[in-house]
Amino acid sequence: MVQLRLPQESRITKGKVFNKPNTKTDTTRTLFVYRYNPDDKANPRLDTFYIDTQNCGPMVLDALNLIKDDIDPSLAFRKSCREGVCGSCAMNIDGTNTLACLKPLHEIKGPINIYPLPHMPVVKDLVPDLTHTYKQYAAIKPYIHNEGSAPAGHEQLQTHTEREKLDGLWECILCFCCSTSCPSYWWNGDEYLGPAVLLNAYRWVADSRDHAKQERLEDLDDAFKLYRCHTILNCTNTCPKGLNPAKAIANLKQEIEKG
């Protein structure tokens, strides 16, 4: 039988144990948190934290804030809005990519395992390096290309039907939970644009105010940029905003087939 092993320097080791209580109560929760600091030149580790949920809010982000504020201030993670709008606190929680600010503690039974978004370079601890994904996002030119001009003193208007075509697209917050859950993106992320970027690409293709639809489709008509999608549907299953990137990708393929 073939055995696949991670490189020695990538293997996760047992980490430190913080704040272990003498006796556990019904409100005590155990968190296993991924830790990595490139400056230490050491393997990543899994630290253990114990928290009393009576001392923090109901979400995983609240627990991480409690750890950083009261137990280990060196813990690194991103956060901003705390309302599921900015996408900053995307991470892998209990085996699923989601937003820490929207994931209730009570939904997780047993110890809570927290890792950074998978298959991404790690800056430190729970902070992934999104440089490449943002370059891919910029490559689709995510803004309106309009050769005309709106009537003086008026907006560029749409009908209700035209506007409805953007529902399920504009709500994307670029948390990249979907892209980092996609096996095709794991193996071909250098060329495949991934679900998040392709959903946003279709957002501009579907916009009636944009005049560069054909150019956009010609640029996407590529064996790797678009067609590495194999409709696995991990992207749709994990989106914390309830969007459907797989459908947007299918719509792009249909638009290209129409010519």
- Series of H and E elements: EEEHEEEEEHHHHHHH
What number is the mean pLDDT?
94
Q: Characterize the overall form.
A: elongated
CATH class of the largest domain: Alpha Beta
Please count the helical segments: 8
Largest sheet: 6 strands, mixed
* Percent of residues in helices: 25-40%
- Percentage of residues in DSSP E strands: 15-25%
Radius of gyration: 21 Å
Uncertain ranges: none
Content-based structural category: alpha/beta
Number of strands: 8
- Widest sheet: strand ordering: 1-3-2-6-4-5
Just name the CATH architecture of the largest domain: Roll
Give the end-to-end Cα distance, rounded to a whole number of Å.
Answer: 47 Å
Describe this structure in a few short sentences.
The chain has 259 residues and is α/β, with parallel strands linked by helices. It folds into two domains: 8-128, Ubiquitin-like (UB roll) (Roll); 131-142 and 159-258, Alpha-helical ferredoxin (Fumarate Reductase Iron-sulfur Protein, Chain B, domain 2, Orthogonal Bundle). The chain is built from eight helices and eight strands.
Give a written overview of the molecule.
- There is one protein chain.
- This protein has 259 residues and is of the alpha/beta class.
- It folds into two domains: 8-128, Ubiquitin-like (UB roll); 131-142 and 159-258, Fumarate Reductase Iron-sulfur Protein, Chain B, domain 2, CATH 1.10.1060.10.
- It has helices at residues 60-71, 131-139, 160-164, 183-188, 194-205, 213-220, 234-238, 245-258; strands at 13-18, 28-35, 45-52, 90-93, 96-99, 112-115, 122-124, 127-128.
- The strands form two sheets. A six-stranded mixed β-sheet has the order 1-3-2-6-4-5, with helices on one face. The protein has a two-stranded antiparallel sheet with strand order 7-8.
- Strand 4 and strand 5 (96-99) form a beta hairpin.
- The chain is elongated and about 70 Å long.
